[in-house]
Write a structure and sequence with these properties.
The chain is α/β, with parallel strands linked by helices. It contains 8 helices and 10 strands. The protein has one domain: Alpha-Beta Barrel (TIM Barrel). Helix 5 crosses helix 6 and helix 7 crosses helix 8. The longest helix is centred in the middle third of the chain and has 21 residues. It is globular. Pfam families: TatD_DNase. Keywords: Hydrolase, Metal-binding. This is TatD DNase domain containing 3.
């Protein structure tokens, strides 16, 4: 069954964070990303409840929550818990994510902690390669491109807030960048100015990165991202919708099984 229609694809959101039953307006598809193995079953069950609309991405985020007040860097044990579930659902996945590196001092203080994060990322990149899936990447760092494991050719860099000049290295590598609604209040405006539209996807990162600070974000705010990109690029919003949707289908080919433009 194919959907022939216009609409946006939200390439990175935390749908399991809340029950987003009423989010279909203007959306063709959502990619639901995980942060830890404890979310995997919920994301899979949502994708089964909304087949052809919610698509699962499973992975271990570089920052893990111990309690609401305490976070730490990802450890190899976190990945050990995740890998059997990824293996179980590998045929259903559209990406491995959310993965990456985050050396923010309050999460990671020692070289051993940094090395653990690197090992978690490297192993997940290997899994993605074995399964022929792209990486959905936590990429808040100028240095990440140089640290993505060798051989990563398909990646979505979500909410990248590094220098536009560094992002252009990602463009040369064939990576895509997804832009959240928080662009209306962020440095990402400079990034979008320089990025080719052919390397841009849309995301909300719901429930974070909304147009207003501290206000819960929702997938319907995807249109805010598109409208702002159209403003910066000086092209109609329909063109942004068309190109970003094509980009998403190129990067996540499994979406093509239900969405045809």
């Amino acid at each position: 069954c194919f959907f022939h229609m216009h609409g946006f694809i939200d390439c990175h959101c935390h749908i399991s964070a809340r029950d987003f039953d009423e989010v279909r307006a203007g959306l063709l598809a959502l990619l639901a990303v995980a942060e830890h193995a404890g979310e995997f079953e919920k994301i899979i069950s949502l994708s089964q409840r909304f087949p052809g609309f919610i698509f699962p991405c499973l992975g271990v985020h570089p920052v893990q929550e111990v309690s609401p007040e305490q976070q730490r860097g990802a450890l190899v044990q976190d990945l050990d818990a995740a890998l059997p579930i990824i293996e179980q659902y590998k045929d259903h996945l559209v990406a491995i994510g959310e993965v990456g590196l985050d050396f923010t001092p309050r999460y990671v203080s020692s070289d051993a902690d940094k090395e653990s994060q690197r090992q978690v990322l490297i192993r997940q990149a290997q899994v993605a390669k074995e399964l022929d899936l792209p990486l959905n990447v936590h990429s808040r760092s100028n240095k990440l491109f140089r640290k993505l494991p060798l051989g990563v050719s398909k990646a979505l860099l979500h909410a990248f807030d590094g220098k536009p000049s560094v992002a252009m290295e990602g463009v040369k590598a064939g990576y895509f960048f997804s832009i959240p609604p928080s662009i209306v209040r962020s440095e990402q405006q400079k990034l979008v100015k320089q990025l080719p539209l052919e390397n841009i996807c849309l995301e909300t990162d719901s429930p974070a990165l909304g147009p207003e600070k501290q206000v819960r974000n929702e997938p319907k705010n995807i249109s805010v991202s598109a409208e702002y990109i159209s403003l910066i690029k000086g092209v109609p919003v329909e063109k942004v919708m068309e190109i970003t949707t094509q980009n998403a289908l190129r990067l996540f080919p499994k979406l093509k099984s239900v969405i045809r433009l």
